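Query form — protein Bromo domain-containing protein

QUESTION: What is the three-dimensional structure of this chain?
INPUT:
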Amino acid sequence: YNMDIKPEGLTEAHKSKLKGLIAKLEKHPDIIHFLEPVNWKALGLYDYPTIIKRPMDISTVKKNLSKNKYKTLDTFLNDIDLIWKNCKTYNQIESPIYEQAEMMEKVFEKA
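ANSWER: The structure tokens for Bromo domain-containing protein are given below.
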């Protein structure tokens, strides 16, 4: 992530690059479970809000980016990382969704 960020925050050019990164992620088949907030009620995951204190997903990152909520590259990257971290915190190692989170983490690191 080689971007020269000024103190005033992300420029339109930065945001355009980050939107391109998100678009790459969205094309990956393993992204499906990470596109929208976890609907824990519908899934019957009633302990989800007690375990995951700050839910994050791709649609929320996109909204935050378009609303200029990210003042630094790190805040953007932290939210992307939080998507995978939350999944791996809540789900068991070797479960399919845990492995999908690991795959998406690797895809993002290479993007």
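ADDITIONAL NOTE: The chain has a mean pLDDT of 92.
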